[in-house]
Amino acid sequence: FRLVQTVWETLPLLVAYRNRHARRFREQVLAETDLFLPVTERAALALQLEGVAPDRITLCPPGIDTARFAPAHRVATGQAPEGHTIVSPGRLVWEKGHQDVLRALALLHRGNIRTPAGETVRPRLRIIGAGPEESRLRAYAADLGLSDAVEIRSVPYEEMPKVFAGASAMVLASQAVAKAALHPLDIPRAFWEEQFGFVLAEAMAARLAIVSTTSGAIPEVVQGAPVELVAPGDWPAIARALAAGPLSRPAGARVSYPPEIVRRYSSTAAAERLAAVY
């Protein structure tokens, strides 16, 4: 049988930055795979640095059900936001940067950063996800005096269109590295960056304003779209981008994304790419 591998990894770790177990698996995968399907151009470039010939690489981004997230969903449910809500979706782990969104929220609530009209806007924040950082994020929200303005919970995927429909902006504050825990007998576990960000495709389909970082493949995924990008960890810039953009408009206002970008990340387009490959 032919062996096809889908690849998300955007960092060419090679041998030097892999542990002794992964080094063996790397050699086997490189030798036995007939075709690699990287989901981003950044992942494709990483594969080439790993030693994969270009003729064994075909770019194949994933897709979502864009119709499920279309703004028409809000009309159908009769949902109209009463005030500004920011959504920070993703696993509750350090590298997803929810802590930076909380810091940005604190600046907005305290009036340190205001809209272009000079108004102080105090949006609510919904952190959507589950993971080991939940208790620390709740404690941090309390430390910042934001407990009444912050909701942290996971929801079924079927509810995410409703979550996006009721929001004014989505923030993906991904960091540039993971936890950086040092293994006592091996290499540091600090090698991660955002590999795609499905929520970016979902938010664009929902015509929801996006503020994100430049971690990993994010700039590539949103290239050509009106998305505000800041450096990983730059929480004042997140606050400024929110205040200058979505928080200066009516609550829940939609933005326009190029149709070709939305369709690129549709399940239909992804199926066409896979069919062409096989």
Write up this protein.
The chain is α/β, with parallel strands linked by helices and about 280 residues long. The chain is about 35% helix and about 15% strand. The strands form 3 sheets. A 6-stranded parallel beta sheet has the order 5-4-3-6-9-10, with helices on both faces. A two-stranded parallel ribbon has the order 1-2. Helix 5 crosses helix 10 (about 235-245). It is globular, with a radius of gyration of 20 Å.
What would the keywords be for this entry?
single chain; 278 residues; alpha/beta; 6-stranded parallel sheet; two-stranded parallel sheet; 12 helices; 36% helix; 14% strand
Please give the alpha-carbon distance between the first and last residues.
13 Å
Oligomeric state of the chains present here: single chain
The DSSP helix count reads: 12
Beta content: 5-15%
Q: What sequence of helices (H) and strands (E) makes up the elements?
A: EHEHHHEHEHEHEEEHEHEHHH
Q: How would you describe the shape?
A: globular
Helical fraction? 25-40%
User: Helices and strands: which structural class?
Assistant: alpha/beta
Biggest sheet architecture:
6 strands, parallel
**Quick one: how many beta strands?**
10
Strand order of the largest sheet: 5-4-3-6-9-10
Radius of gyration: 20 Å
Average pLDDT value? Answer: 93
Task: List unreliable stretches of 5+ residues.
Answer: none
Topology readout:
Elements: E1 4-7, H1 20-32, E2 35-38, H2 41-50, H3 66-69, H4 72-77, E3 85-89, H5 98-109, E4 124-128, H6 134-143, E5 150-153, H7 160-165, E6 169-172, E7 181-182, E8 188-189, H8 198-205, E9 209-213, H9 218-221, E10 228-230, H10 235-244, H11 259-264, H12 267-277
Parallel strand pairs: 1-2, 3-4, 3-6, 4-5, 6-9, 9-10
Antiparallel strand pairs: 7-8
Helix pairs in contact: 5-10
